[in-house]
Amino acid sequence: xxxxxxxxxxxxxxxxxxxxxxxxxxxxxxxxxxxxxxxxxxxxxxxxxxxxxxxxxxxxxxxxxxxxxxxxxxxxxxxxxxxxxxxxxxxxxxxxxxxxxxxxxxxxxxxxxxxxxxxxxxxxxxxxxxxxxxxxxxxxxxxxxxxxxxxxxxxxxxxxxxxxxxxxxxxxxxxxxxxxxxxxxxxxxxxxxxxxxxxxxxxxxxxxxxxxxxxxxxxxxxxxxxxxxxxxxxxxxxxxxxxxxxxxxxxxxxxxxxxxxxxxxxxxxxxxxxxxxxxxxxxxxxxxxxxxxxxxxxxxxxxxxxxxxxxxxxxxxxxxxxxxxxxxxxxxxxxxxxxxxxxxxxxxxxxxxxxxxxxxxxxxxxxxxxxxx
Length: 373
Hints:
Elements: E1 10-12, E2 42-50, E3 53-61, E4 67-73, E5 80-81, E6 94-95, E7 97-101, H1 104-107, H2 110-120, E8 125-126, E9 134-135, E10 140-142, H3 158-170, E11 189-190, E12 193-194, E13 196-203, E14 209-216, H4 245-262, E15 271-278, H5 282-299, E16 311-320, H6 330-351, E17 355-357, E18 360-362, H7 365-369
Parallel strand pairs: 7-10, 15-16
Antiparallel strand pairs: 1-2, 2-3, 3-7, 4-6, 4-16, 5-10, 8-9, 11-12, 13-14, 14-15, 17-18
């Protein structure tokens, strides 16, 4: 777990599995299959568990100087901060970090801790003659997980955000994103299943990398009720594992027991950050955020409901320019963004462990159906 014995938040800081700079073959999954395979991006989690808590915050930290950023919101109940700044018509071109957090609207306070951390390092939009005169613009979005640990008042705050960005800053380059019930995915649920954090990445034939991180927390389901297969598995290019009927029947029995214990389904939201090392304008990044929602729709049914706040951020670090002689070169990036969101949701579902708290029981997919063959 990632909390200290006294219950203080302890950020995840997994540096031991850092990958090398090895370049994968074009069209192959990136070294870790992770958002951090986009050079310069780092991810940190702060996870709050125990004493009625089941929540946390995840921070995507851009390289110093920031990344071009955009957003597309399609859920009917979003909780966001600073998303208007990402409109291509507006002033801000780059952001230093993106915050994904639990705690519903209360948890957006986690972004304040990230803003303070950035200001201390002079990172943000320059607004005066002194290099210290900066305003960090930190877009944020939240998922609904209130009460899932048993205490409705347990939620991330500015200290949680500071812990998460500090964890991101301490990771080595290309450190894989920790997946499952960590950070903003700690209290996540997808339908009756435990949700969580997942990540995926691919290197295109052009040499451009596209990757995604998701917090899977949807009112809809990621699982076909007739077979027990994950919807998203149909779009990963791998054979779709189909659970044995007896396994599926037992899984349905255990899910029904958990649903009866938990009561009415709560509000939800799925969040994603899709990133690329391509050179993109803000308008192109916004198009990437929008088409990446298609990946969410493949993996979760139904999606973008009134009680979801589904939001996709797009980041572009600007290391590789798409082919100048091909006006449709962006299409490959757009398609990959959707594919990586689907893959990341599948990974989130397979990484999540069953959680039992005073707030309910949330069965993990692999605990019901086993590991992927």
